Task: inverse folding
């Protein structure tokens, strides 16, 4: 759905009605956060109850707060999916989930599983949301559904149509198609031009403005009606409420959003993706080359630990002598270890690290810190850290997105900021990849993640999300690899000056003489290393 079409109001009224009319039912109404859920309960649901003498008489005043309401013999629970105390153990008859794209997907699945004891005819899982990216949450749900649209009957060709805003809106006397509009275009567009825009019939190109306002020429048409019984889905777009969202106003509202993605998501109810929200697979293909398996020295390592498999990436960074930043990262090895067989996992990782004289290693620390702790204590060629992802607010006052504790072997990193950095490096052609059997799976893992704005408005924290049921292990392994590369380079000139005894080893422009006292800092230059592996 797009925003501001009244679906949250309808859903809350439906929930209250179900509680009042059904006997002894449990209704769970979810929103992304606990604070959001409580505010919704107070400002949207309470007025509905207070405005109805019948509903007010059914309320149990001793069980009437922002988290729980008793209406007759039924209960309504208002919960946030990111709340630590989310009551996932409640057996529910109905689960109504608002803004699913911005909710914790695992918790949503847990809530849905709470209806297993109910007959299908006596339960429902109702989900709706502003969409964000293809294949994620509400987009995936809609694609698997009956795909209902509020169709319109054209006055000219008299055919029922399901028009698309981006394809079928016409702006007379304006050359730029709607799908290519930018904020600059709209800022320079005279208001009378925008207000003259109209939705055209996909079939005969006639103006649909009058027909959109005629309720007798509107009806729901499902693309896959055979799915309605088990998975009924609907899409609500701006012109489904044409008096509130005329086409011209919808176009002008591009200026209300700093990001074009937000206009697509919130105003049009469409998914959106560009190079800032995804990894460019074509760029990865262009930067994939053959690497022979000869050991290298002075590499960095990223490790994503799984219950059954562990993903290990090794790379050689090229670091700026002036800033300490990673300018290039050449990945030379992608290895998948069996986490359940053979030597203990920590020993397997350590063997690979020592073989390549790894100077910096980052491994995920959650949920089990034991592997990361083992590597921190036993890696003799460099430093090893267990990484914990944090929110961007952790680094709000700092000019970085990670922080390390050398003594404890812990790295805290801004999840969104660090993946942003990886995406920038990959899409900018600054990461090279080794040709091999893991490359197809690596691209699948990177393609499975997309960057979304987590809430309407500019105060919402952006985040990277993974498509439903997709794997993203190589993403995190590479992200840890780049963090390890950043750690190995330090934070600029001050860090490099502290490494003065081996400065030639750090400088990627010259091979330098090895320093026997600091073997973990003796990194040959990138070109020589590549010459070795080729």
Result:
């Amino acid at each position: 759905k797009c925003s501001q079409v009244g679906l949250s109001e309808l859903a809350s009224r439906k929930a209250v009605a179900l509680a009042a009319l059904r006997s002894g039912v449990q209704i769970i109404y979810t929103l992304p956060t606990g604070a959001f859920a409580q505010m919704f309960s107070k400002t949207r649901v309470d007025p509905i109850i207070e405005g109805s003498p019948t509903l007010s008489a059914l309320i149990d005043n001793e069980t009437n707060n922002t988290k729980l309401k008793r209406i007759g013999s039924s209960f309504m629970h208002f919960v946030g999916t990111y709340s630590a105390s989310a009551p996932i153990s409640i057996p529910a008859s109905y689960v109504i989930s608002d803004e699913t794209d911005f909710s914790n997907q695992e918790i949503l699945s847990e809530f849905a599983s709470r209806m297993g004891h109910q007959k299908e005819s006596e339960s429902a899982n109702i989900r709706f949301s502003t969409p964000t990216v293809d294949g994620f949450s509400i987009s995936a749900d809609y694609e698997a559904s009956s795909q209902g649209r509020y169709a319109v009957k054209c006055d000219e060709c008299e055919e029922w149509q399901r028009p698309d805003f981006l394809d079928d809106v016409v702006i007379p006397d304006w050359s730029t198609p709607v799908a290519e509009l930018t904020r600059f275009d709209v800022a320079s567009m005279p208001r009378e031009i925008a207000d003259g825009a109209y939705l055209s019939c996909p079939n005969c190109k006639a103006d649909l403005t009058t027909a959109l306002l005629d309720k007798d020429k509107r009806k729901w048409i499902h693309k896959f009606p055979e799915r309605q019984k088990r998975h009924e889905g609907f899409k609500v777009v701006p012109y489904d409420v044409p008096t509130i969202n005329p086409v011209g106003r919808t176009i002008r509202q591009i200026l209300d959003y700093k990001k074009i993605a937000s206009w697509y998501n919130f105003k049009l109810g469409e998914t959106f993706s560009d190079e800032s929200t995804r990894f460019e697979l074509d760029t990865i293909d262009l930067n994939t080359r053959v690497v022979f398996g000869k050991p290298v020295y002075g590499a960095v390592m990223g490790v994503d630990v799984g219950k059954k498999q562990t993903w290990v990436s090794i790379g050689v960074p090229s670091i700026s002598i002036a800033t300490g930043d990673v300018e290039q990262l050449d990945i030379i090895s992608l290895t998948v270890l069996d986490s359940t067989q053979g030597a203990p996992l920590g020993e397997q990782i350590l063997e690979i690290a020592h073989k390549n004289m790894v100077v910096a290693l980052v491994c995920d620390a959650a949920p089990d810190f034991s592997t990361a702790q083992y590597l921190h204590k036993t890696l003799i060629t460099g430093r090893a850290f267990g990484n914990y992802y944090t929110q961007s607010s952790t680094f709000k006052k700092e000019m970085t997105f990670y922080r390390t504790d050398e003594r404890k072997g812990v790295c805290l990193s801004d999840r969104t900021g660090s993946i942003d950095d990886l995406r920038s490096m990959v899409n900018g052609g600054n990461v090279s990849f080794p040709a091999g059997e893991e490359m197809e799976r690596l691209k699948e893992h990177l393609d499975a993640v997309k960057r979304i704005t987590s809430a309407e408005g500019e105060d919402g924290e952006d985040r990277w999300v993974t498509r439903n049921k997709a794997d993203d292990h190589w993403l995190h392994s590479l992200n840890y690899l780049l963090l390890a590369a950043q750690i190995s380079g330090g934070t600029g000139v001050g860090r490099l000056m502290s490494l003065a005894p081996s400065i030639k080893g750090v400088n990627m422009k010259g091979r330098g003489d090895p320093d026997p006292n600091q073997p973990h800092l003796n990194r040959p230059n990138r070109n020589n290393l590549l010459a070795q592996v080729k």
Summary: The first strand starts at residue 26 and ends at 31. Residues 324 and 411 are 18 Å apart (CA to CA).
